[in-house]
Design brief:
With about 140 residues, this protein is an alpha/beta fold. It has 5 helices and 4 strands; from the N terminus they run αβαβαββαα. The radius of gyration is 19 Å and the shape is elongated. The two termini are about 30 Å apart.
Amino acid sequence: MHESLRIKYLDALGIPKYLHSQKSTNKAIEEKVNTKCLVIESANKDSFCVQGESRGFLLKMLGAISLADTDIECISVDANTLEDSVSKYNTQSILIMSNDLKINTNNCFSTHHPSLIINNDTLKREAWEVLKNLKQCLK
């Protein structure tokens, strides 16, 4: 709940302002985003975080393993902020689509970026094998 909405409810209930608790600064208390699949890339001129050919191809790839657009969260990070960014999500699986990003978890998979796969048919088979393993993780 947003703080402004919370304050409106407290005011409507007649709770005095001095009893309103201060907003917590503890990051562990912050609510995490729930998603089936967190897809991560490093900075890329053909980012799948925005509409374009890479995003369209990524959605087709993930659709082939029965993931809907609403099941996917896409983020772009650098290696220094990877773990901090991932900690903001409650996810069943992580798909890293960058050679320079690594994270050590049981539900993490890694393959080539869609922009590379589009232009290189030899990468499609390898990506498909990774996607089949990702699908097994989601069961």
